[in-house]
Amino acid sequence: MSEWLVLTIAMAAACAVVLSIAFINHRRIGEDDDPNETPDVIEYMTMMIGVIYAIVLGLAIAGVWEGRGAAQEYVRQEAQALHEISVRSEVYPAEVRKAIRADVDAYVTHVVDTEWREMADHGRLTDRGGELLERIRRDVTDYEPQTDHEGQAYQPLVDQVAAVDDARGARGLGAGATMPGVVWFGLIAGALVTVGLIFTLQIRRSFRELLLAGLFSALIAFLLFLIWDFDAPFGRGISATAEPFLSQFPHLSLGD
User: Fold this and answer.
1) What is each CA distance from 236 to 196, 208, 233, 246, in whole angstroms?
2) Which of 7, 63, 105, 147 is the most exposed place for a label (fewest CB within 10 A)?
3) How far apart are CA 59 and CA 255, in angstroms?
């Protein structure tokens, strides 16, 4: 099922539930009921709970958005380090240079075409990706420089391999959902309480009140959807992309 279809259904369901309860509640109210009798303390508490929940929602959205941004930065660092390895190997003999670049291309192709789906579906890296990275490491570290020029390039290449390994590890750690279950419980429970407090103010069936109640509940559902969508940096609609790999290695047929 499409994520946007899920969002549409969730928002419509939230509106339908709130409006249904409003209609049912209105039928139970007697003709002599006065909505102006709502105590001021209830209005104050409703406002404060709404403000507190808004702060919690804001912090949750900021947290998952920061996680997504960090995941995208890890991808950029990994792609840049691999590009540097491919370019700096130019000083090595043709046979060594060809082996390094071939293994770099194989690793990038595997990451974009295979490992990316594994992260999206299961939140983890593949063993094959680790093996391909180890081949790059062996290509770089096993070669003994024959000239001063090659010797000067050796350590920077080793450092770039370490940078790839570090970025790959960080990418793996950020592949799964980061929001703990207890936080989700608090967010959903807070949403129910916040929306439920609408009825403490004795909402009526006027078009204005029903419209505001529906829009408010839809907004809460939309914000919860955003948190859920950002919570898996590589697995959902608004996720980190493999664009850094595509731009650094345009000669590869990636993502086809």
Assistant:
1) 30, 36, 7, 19
2) 147
3) 34
Q: Is 208 exposed, middle or buried (0-12, 13-18, 19+ CB in 10 A)?
A: exposed
Amino acid in the structure at residue 119:
M
Cα distances (angstroms) measured from residue 53 to each of 22, 44, 226: 22, 14, 15
Residue 78 CA to residue 169 CA, distance in Å, equals 10
| DSSP calls for 75-113 | HHHHHHHHHHHHHHGGGS-HHHHHHHHHHHHHHHHHIII
Q: What pLDDT is recorded for position 101?
A: 92
The kind and range of the H/E element at 60 are: helix 40-88
pLDDT tens digits, 158-207: 999 999 999 999 988 887 777 888 888 889 988 988 888 877 766 666 77
Q: How far is CA 142 from CA 99, 138, 152, 161, in A?
A: 12, 5, 15, 13
Residue 29's SS3 state is: coil
Give the residue from 245, 239, 249, 242 showing the smallest Cα distance to 79: 245
| Cβ-Cβ contacts under 8 Å for 231 (sequence gap 6 or more) | 64, 67, 177, 178, 179
Indicate the angle between helix axes 127-141 and 148-173, nearest 10 degrees.
160
Please return the burial class of 131, using the count of CB atoms within 10 Å of its CB with bins 0-12, 13-18 and 19+: exposed
Is residue 100 a contact partner of residue 86, using CB atoms and an 8 Å limit?
Answer: yes
Task: Specify whether the CB–CB gap between 106 and 239 falls below 8 A.
Answer: no
Span 131-149, average pLDDT: 89
